Amino acid sequence: MATRTVRIIMNGVTGRMGYRQHLLRSILAIRDDGGVALPNGGRLQVEPVLVGRNRDKLAGIAAVHEIAEFTTDLDAALADPTAAVYFDALVTSERKDSILRAIAAGKHVYTEKPIAESVADGLALAEAARAAGIVNGVVHDKLYLPGLLKLKRLIDSGFFGRILSVRGEFGYWVFEGDVQPAQRPSWNYRAEDGGGIVLDMFCHWNYVLEDLFGRVRAVTAKAVTHIPERWDEHGQAYRATADDAAYAIVELDGDVIAQINSSWAVRVNRDELVEFQVDGTHGSAVAGLFRCRVQPRVCTPKPVWNPDVPTDQDFRSQWQETPDNQEFGNGFRAQWQQFLRDADAGRPHSYDLLAGVRGLSLVDAALRSSAEGRRIEVAE
User: Fold this and answer.
1) Which of 12, 24, 82, 193 has its CA at a distance of 20 to 30 angstroms from the CA of residue 45?
2) Considering Cα of 14, then 15, then 20, then 26, what sign does the dihedral take?
3) 3-141+331-349 is classed in which CATH architecture?
4) pTM for this structure?
């Protein structure tokens, strides 16, 4: 069957996530494997067009990876009728304007999240995309992680019985930048630049909870800045104005309660950087990026509380590993392939800009809850 080529304008791939996950491990990996397989037996080859502000960085990436085109002129790239898709990996504060320009140019849009800095801005993007009739998608990478795919398999099989609760733990210690360089960019810790762990991570938690367990209905949250001073990429001290940790109780459909702790000021004492424990009437599971362990009801031990005697049970050993049973690829690449098939067919993508808006609704409700000290219902 024939192979067609889709040209993709990729804006912001000089950044860590845009380069590693979207360019290197997704688009270039797809290119090197001969493109995306289509249902009719054909293939859809990809050709990236790099866009950014730093011409030298773009030129270096293009040379290393044999990419023919790069430019610092976004409008010129969008004016090219041969480029059908626009991808955005910019900092959040610059995303809305660029996506609106891409939509006006008639491009299909795929974007990192959060899709904007507010619900109103997100709705404006979704409405513009609807009016233009373009295919649009938002990165939902965590749904494609091996651990969560195994968890979804358990849910679909009825393993849990009635799901009661979810407990999520995410985070790690991000160095302040004085003794050791920080492993995240400094703008993440400045609210005026679109930083903050609530804005960054609650968009993820919304789609994880929504896709696996049910729609988010209300939240009680506390967002804090544990580390008030940090040092930037040039060794200059700056005041951290954005939240670096957040603690939330989230109410879902079906009376499921989720507790999610997110922190860039926590030292890891768990198997993976993110883990979700799901407890149900018939069994429980702990899922991370790759692993998923289970404890069914019939194998649940019967501990007895006795503070006078040291615990003689190894609780971790009482859980069973869920087998892979399939080959798991890179989650970012898997969703890219799904989006490109949808754009090629002209059909809606499962995780569109309105899904991104729902993530922003949880962000907005969580920040309001923290500021006002009360439970906030999440807007539909």
Assistant:
1) 12
2) negative
3) 3-Layer(aba) Sandwich (3.40)
4) 0.92
Can you tell me the distance from the alpha carbon of 57 to that of 318, in angstroms, rounded to the nearest whole number? 51
SS3 assignment, position 344: helix
If you ran DSSP here, which 8-state letter would residue 323 be given? P
Residue that is written with structure tokens 């773009």 in the block: 58
CATH superfamily name and code, 143-330+361-372:
Dihydrodipicolinate Reductase; domain 2 (3.30.360.10)
User: What is the tens place of the pLDDT at every residue in 214-245?
Assistant: 999 999 999 999 999 999 999 999 999 999 99
Output the CA torsion sign for 148, 150, 154, 155: positive
Alpha helices (runs of H) in 318-352, residue ranges in sequence order = 331-345
Question: What whole-number distance in Å separates Cα of residue 50 and Cα of residue 67?
Answer: 8
Asked if residue 303 has a cis previous peptide bond (ω within 30° of 0), the answer is no
Give the E-state strand segments of the chain in sequence order. 3-11, 36-37, 43-51, 69-71, 83-88, 108-111, 136-138, 163-171, 216-224, 229-231, 237-239, 245-252, 257-263, 274-280, 283-287, 292-296, 320-321, 376-377
H or E stretch including 309?
none
